[in-house]
Amino acid sequence: MSRRDRVLTFLNKFGAKYHVALSRRSGGRLGNRFRGGDVLLITHRGRTSGRSYTTPLLHVRDGDDFVVAASNGGVDVEPQWWLNLQADPHGVAEVHGRPTAVVANAVAEADRQRLWDALMAKCPNYDKYQASVSRRIALVRLSPG
């Protein structure tokens, strides 16, 4: 991992912890918007530790589903939350303090461009993130269940 990516990873972890704490302490009233987009908290199980982790993510709705980008803030490695959900796709998404059990899956190729465009409309930084990494940023569908 490059020095830039290590610094971004540190800042992302610090910011995520603060964001989760703010949302939880306010009952979901604060921390539900970031850079013009809607934020959800995804709670997932660590694939090796078995511990529970919570990560704030920008999202768009697609019917009853939430769609998020595994951008990792422009760091050129898959985010831990996505690796964890690939190992165990069951999690809990919280929006405005309301939890919903969800199952995570990669977005189907047929839906990818439409959903990427919807995310870009909310958070134009995703194009910058995609340009700064060598991997294709995964789009993840969180479906109730």
Automatic annotation (TrEMBL):
<dbReference type="GO" id="GO:0016491">
    <property type="term" value="F:oxidoreductase activity"/>
</dbReference>
<dbReference type="GO" id="GO:0005886">
    <property type="term" value="C:plasma membrane"/>
</dbReference>
<dbReference type="InterPro" id="IPR004378">
    <property type="entry name" value="F420H2_quin_Rdtase"/>
</dbReference>
<dbReference type="GO" id="GO:0070967">
    <property type="term" value="F:coenzyme F420 binding"/>
</dbReference>
<dbReference type="Pfam" id="PF04075">
    <property type="entry name" value="F420H2_quin_red"/>
</dbReference>
<dbReference type="InterPro" id="IPR012349">
    <property type="entry name" value="Split_barrel_FMN-bd"/>
</dbReference>
<protein>
    <submittedName>
        <fullName>Deazaflavin-dependent oxidoreductase, nitroreductase family</fullName>
    </submittedName>
</protein>
<comment type="similarity">
    <text>Belongs to the F420H(2)-dependent quinone reductase family.</text>
</comment>
